Amino acid sequence: MIKRRDFLKLAFSQCALGAAAISAPSLVLAKTKPPAERQLAFYNLHTGEKLSTTYWADGEYITQELASLNYLLRDHRTDEIHTMDKNLLDLLYVLQQQVDKSGAYHIISGYRSPKTNAKLRQNSNGVAKRSLHMQGKAMDVRLPGVELKHLRQAALQLHAGGVGYYPKSNFVHIDTGRPRFW
Fold it and tell me: Which residues pair with 42 in a beta bridge?
């Protein structure tokens, strides 16, 4: 017969293993009353395109809205479209809740094709060879009305991925890779 204490230890360890498989944004969302909808707004600085969307509702992602986001966040240099990581969208949603500021994220860079990434690497040592932008798992953003250092600090507190701080260029890099910062 299993003792109550041993049962609770086993149950806790199983929960911990299961939680590790859940994305950090999902964990943050789970700590609060889940919203009926998740909305984001973006302004692509390179193309001038804007999008305000409800990308998640009634417990699921909305395929058509995700396609619209993928298009908006395409590589503006090559017009290549790539599927953006849903966890990245959730991370940006949670981040916006953390800073308590509505409005459109200004997009400096979303998806970046391998060709574009290689070209940018030739001109800058700040571009990673295996950038998560090429996988649709990173964005460079700013949020008007929120000080850049405040946006960075809020992103760091989420412990949900990489956070790069570029005050001279006026953006924060957010990705869904392992938690790290620069």
Answer: 51, 105
